[in-house]
Amino acid sequence: MTSAPASSAAATAPAAARSQCDPLDAAAIAKDFPILAEQVNGHPLVYLDSAATSQRPRAALDAERDFLEHANAAVHRGAHTLAAEATELFEDARAAVAGFVGAAPEQLVWTSGATMGLNLVAYSIGNASVGRGAPASAGLALRPGDEIVTTAIEHHANLIPWQELAARTGAVLRHIPAHDDGTLDLDAAAELIGERTRIVAFTHVSNVLGIVNPIAELIALAQRVGALTVMDACQSAPHLSLDLPALGVDLAVFSGHKMLGPYGVGGLYGRAEVLEAMPPFLTGGSMITTVTLDHAEYLPPPQRFEAGTQPIGPAIGLAAAVRYLDGIGLDRIHAHESMLAERMRAGLVEIPGIRLLGDAAGAPRVGLWAFDVEGVHAHDAGQFLDARGVAVRVGHHCAAPLHTRYGVTASVRASAALYNTTGDIDTFLDAVSGIRPYFGL
Questions:
Q1: Which residue of 118, 210, 336, 376 is 20 to 30 Å from 148, comparing CA positions?
Q2: Where is the signal peptide (predicted)?
């Protein structure tokens, strides 16, 4: 196997020799991302849609291509050399991605993304609720009147699976409200999370508001009553240094394509005893020990949850992506993106007719802002920005209830990443300032 070339940005200096306070050279980092050299509608691309899908560095692109060119084979079962090489690369990728979030390899289940991971958890608990699984699975079972608590700011992927689970089991779904500034109401959370609470599901960082939620407090409230905690880490994994076991969360999910990696791969982290108690969700090949025509027995985690052919190349690409992020340093990345967020806010609040969603003073956040343009639909605003080479997200961002909370059907969302420069933000702000005048407002 030939290894993928090292990233120029990540190789600038040894990680140990850099202070976490050293500023990033975002312009140099951007050169590691081929797509950022593109022009869109006659303008240099300003990519501010990383919360939906981040761009990939050459290191991640090369790692997946290298696997396909030199070791492409099915993993775990083959006896030939390519199969052995593919298996080694696949399991090395598991170890790298697990380590990136502070976990052991056996605590990481490969999924197709966070949505798959959350559905896996919800359906597994549903299976436990109808008596499937090992004796330990009974501890996960829901009964009529049990409560699932989530928040009013969730992405649909961390809401609808719980709606479905409640409908199947007779459990009651409850929601922690948010204040006007987008912060969660912890007093309400303390009242909602009680002796009937069995699951508390929450996002680490809102994909609309960009606010880092007080997860330590939520986890403590859940632990007080013995409830299972499930965290959506999609918007935190690429931007914050995570140690999931240290946080004390039971289960957490993230998606590769939001953290510089490929589509079609993500991770489900679980505490060992929780994964061991969970019945399988998908069944078939690769997740069994013995099978007869009438009965099957299943492998331990994580393979129990990995039926069928796995996303081998994407997993290897994701491992290269997290090594790239580690090489630069998550603390440095967060500091850079926080600076961009502050620059973005300072400019947006000066533009007439712009209303920020979740403008919580002093709240920790990532480099993301969603806003409403008075008198202009978000889709029209997005097209105006796109004509000037600025890529943003428009719509309800799979968080329709949260938009209803703010009295809008859609918003414009700009989300920065490690490869964005202050010049990108200034170009974006200049373009936003022209939206309402263009529409005669």
A1: 210
A2: none
**Is 176:192 a contact under the CB 8 Å cutoff?**
yes
Run of H or E including 337: helix 330-348
Query: 418 lies in a domain?
Result: no
Q: How many CB atoms lie within 10 A of CB 72?
A: 12
Q: Which residues pair with 6 in a beta bridge?
A: none
CA 147, CA 209: separation in Å to the nearest integer?
Answer: 26
Q: Give the active site residue among 52, 296, 398, 408.
A: 398
pLDDT (tens digit per residue) in 205-218: 999 999 999 999 99
Going by pLDDT thresholds of 50, 70 and 90, the confidence category of residue 8 is very low
> 302, 207 in Cβ contact below 8 A?
no
8 Å CB contact between 254 and 270: no
Torsion sign over Cα 278, 284, 288, 294: positive
Which domain covers residue 276, as residue numbers? 81-324
Q: Among candidates 287, 284, 440, 323, which has minimal Cα distance to 376?
A: 440
CB-based contact 84:243 (threshold 8 Å): no
Under the banding of pLDDT at 50, 70 and 90, the label for residue 127 is very high
382 part of a folded domain: no
Instruction: Residue 158: give its domain's CATH number.
Output: 3.40.640.10
Q: Is residue 416 within 8 Å of 341, Cβ to Cβ?
A: yes
Residues above pLDDT 70, as percent of the chain: 95
User: Given pLDDT bands bounded at 50, 70 and 90, which one contains residue 78?
Assistant: confident
Domain assignment present for residue 265? The answer is: yes
Our answer to whether residue 398 is catalytic in this structure is: yes
- Number of domains composing the chain: 1
pLDDT tens across 174-210, in order?
A: 999 999 999 999 999 999 999 999 999 999 999 999 9
Among 178, 177, 79, 166, which Cα is nearest to 125's?
166
Task: Enter the tokens of residue 280.
Answer: 């399988």
Instruction: Assess if residue 76 is contained within a domain.
Output: no
For residue 97, give the H/E element and its range: helix 81-100
Q: Residue 251 carries which side chain, given as an amino acid letter?
A: L
Strands in 100-248 per DSSP E:
108-111, 147-151, 172-176, 197-203, 228-232
Confidence of residue 135 (pLDDT cuts 50, 70, 90): confident
pTM for the whole structure: 0.93
The single-letter DSSP state of residue 300 is P
